[in-house]
Amino acid sequence: MKRNDPHRRRFLQGMTFGAAAFTAPGLFAEKLTPTAAMMEGPFYPDKMPLDTDNDLLIINDSITPAVGEITYLTGRILTVAGQPLRNAFVEIWQCDAKASYLHAGGRNPEGLDGNFQGYGRFLTDAKGQYWFRTIKPVPYRLGGTFRAPHIHFGVSRNGRRIFTTQVHIRGHESNASDVLLRQIRDARERETVLANWKPIPGSKVGEFSAEFDIILGATAAEGEDGVLRGGIGRKS
Asked: Per the residue annotation, which of 121, 150, 168, 172 is the catalytic one?
């Protein structure tokens, strides 16, 4: 059991209230734009952390939090008709504030933040909702490739990976230099993998909130080569 964090508690309570607005009849009169699929990438954890829940800032009963700007990341998994996907297994993974992943090949020379979980998972509720507490992603260069700040997402159901994508910070100055974002040439499609990082009013530690809904169209290949390298829904 993790520490009783009042900020996290208020956040989760607010999620329940706010979600009611998304279930109003007639809200989805037209089909939603499917979220663009993006490759899983090479840095899915090669060894899972000791803790795999949806709070990536605290590992088990540690009293030392991860370094970084706290972000409450929320959203829903929906069909193009606006129907929520219940019991979808949502995974996220990202580098820490030192630009290192939980992967032997994804380490920055500056080292690793041993207090950052780096990976989390959550099972969506009846309204298709998920939520995570993590850090605001940072840009990095690994293996000669530059990446703008992003968080990886994998969505599985019934033990099968059905979708993979990444969320990026809308308006970030380095987005134009990101090799994968540049591959999404349609501006409307690119918008589906961008989210606003908004400062939380009154936060004394500079916390952020970000909302990212994943709209599932046809299931997508998990990488440019169509091969899953990791994940709960990995191919047999």
From this structure: 150
Pick the catalytic residue from 121, 152, 161, 172.
Answer: 152
User: 101 and 112 in contact (C-beta within 8 Å)?
Assistant: no
| Predicted local distance difference test score (pLDDT) of residue 114 | 94
CATH number for the domain that contains residue 157: 2.60.130.10
Number of folded domains that form the chain: 1
Q: Is 133 a catalytic residue?
A: no
pLDDT tier, 16 (very low <50, low <70, confident <90, very high otherwise): very low
Catalytic residue among 76, 121, 147, 172: 147
Geometric angle at alpha carbon 52, from 35 and 99, rounded to 5°: 70
Convert the pLDDT of each residue in 94-107 to its tens digit.
999 999 999 999 99
101 a catalytic residue: yes
Q: Does a structural domain hold residue 227? A: no
d(CA 133, CA 73): 6
Catalytic residue among 8, 140, 168, 172: 140
Q: Which domain holds residue 126?
A: 31-186+199-216
In the residue annotation, 190 being an active-site residue is answered as no
Q: How confident is residue 227, by pLDDT bands cut at 50, 70 and 90? A: low
Query: Could you tell me if residue 41 is inside a domain?
Result: yes
Interatomic CA distance for residues 1 and 15, integer angstroms: 21
Report if residue 98 sits inside a domain: yes
To the query of whether residue 130 is one of the catalytic residues in this protein, the response is no
222 within domain boundaries:
no
Active site residue 147: yes
